[in-house]
Structure formats: C-alpha cells, structure tokens
Design brief:
This protein is an alpha+beta fold. The protein has helices at about 10-15, 25-30, 35-45, 60-65, 70-85, 90-100, 150-160, 165-175; strands at about 20-25, 45-50, 55, 90, 110-115, 125, 130, 140-145, 145-150. The strands form three sheets. A four-stranded mixed beta sheet has the order 4-5-7-6. Strands 1-3-2 form a three-stranded antiparallel beta sheet. Strands 8-9 form a two-stranded antiparallel sheet. Strand 6 (about 125) and strand 7 form a beta hairpin. Helix 4 (about 60-65) packs across helix 5 (about 70-85) and helix 5 (about 70-85) crosses helix 6.
Length: about 180
C-alpha cells in the first residue's frame, strides 16, 4: 500500500512530469502511475487538476498561463481528455486558438465537434458545448497542441451559428489575405 507522503521515484514518472502533458486519470494510470503516486504528485503541485478527473503537469499549466490563446488551448486539451480524443475544437474555441478577433468575446466555454455517431444526449455539459458533424481530414489541423478545425472551416462554422461572430472573423481573414 502506498502512503500519501511517499515521494515518486519512478524514473519514467519523473521523466513524464518534466514534459508538458495533460491526461485523464485512466491515462495517467496507463502511463504507470499508481493511485498513491498520482495523489502524491497532486499534493506536491507536480500535477494540477485542470478539468474534472484530468490533470496536467506543471510545465503544461505554466504554458497555458503564458497567454489567452494558450490558456484556451489548455482548456480544450483537458476537455478532449475528459470526453474523448475524437472530439475536435471548433467554432469559437477554434477561433480563439487560431487568434481570430471574435466580437463580442465568446463565453468561457469549450466548443467541440464530435462525429455524429458519438453524439451524447446533451448539447452542453460541464463547460463544453458539443456540435455533431463529420469533419473531413482536410478541415482539421493541429494548433497549439490540439486538434482544431482549419481557419476556413472555423470561419464558416462561426458564421453559421452567430452572424456577429462570423462577420468579425471573416473581416479579419479577408484583411490578412490582402
């Protein structure tokens, strides 16, 4: 039995902690941490809870604190760890990660698109708003360490759900292309 005061000395665990990682509890266990080690790392501040049942290494949290885009990307990474890695940041979340000017500022909510067959009965859950859509590979990219819709897809998605958000995003993209 592991005591909560026990220090983690497993070299692979220490190596993992030096990297910027965000994992749900099951993934930390799969990486080799025991329940006692996880608890000890949380108490020491080496792992920080960033979403219910999702913990990040200190470097990941520091990275997220460096600017608002990264902060939102960290929230998206944590939400994806919680609800499934097949989800993709979209709409306002993708816009924030891509650095689009969104006016008015969207609420502090993570917006994810899931495959239609993966749809839960709820559209909104624990700070996440879900859309259901099939996303072709050409409309998904990686930005700030997470899967997001491309800028073009993001602009179209925002325009579909919010006229004001869509116009501001389209204006910025047109200006940047000139």
């Amino acid at each position: 039995m592991t005591c909560h005061h026990e220090k983690v000395t497993n070299s692979s665990a220490l190596n993992t902690l030096s990297k910027s990682r965000v994992r749900n509890v099951a993934e930390w266990y799969a990486d080799g941490l025991t329940r006692g080690q996880l608890r000890s790392l949380v108490r020491s501040g080496d792992l920080i809870r960033v979403w219910p049942a999702v913990y990040a290494t200190r470097p990941a949290v520091e990275w997220g604190r460096s600017n608002p885009q990264r902060g939102h990307a960290l929230r998206v990474i944590a939400a994806r760890a919680a609800v499934g890695r097949d989800s993709v940041a979209s709409h306002q979340s993708a816009g924030l990660i891509h650095g689009l000017d969104l006016f008015p500022q969207p609420p502090d909510l993570v917006v994810l698109t899931r495959p239609p067959g993966r749809r839960s009965g709820r559209r909104k859950s624990d700070g996440i708003y879900f859309h259901a859509a099939a996303l072709p590979d050409a409309q998904v990219t990686t930005a700030l360490g997470t899967r997001v819709t491309t800028v073009a897809r993001t602009v179209v998605d925002i325009a579909r759900v919010s006229y004001a958000h869509g116009l501001c995003s389209v204006r910025r993209q047109v200006v940047s292309l000139l």
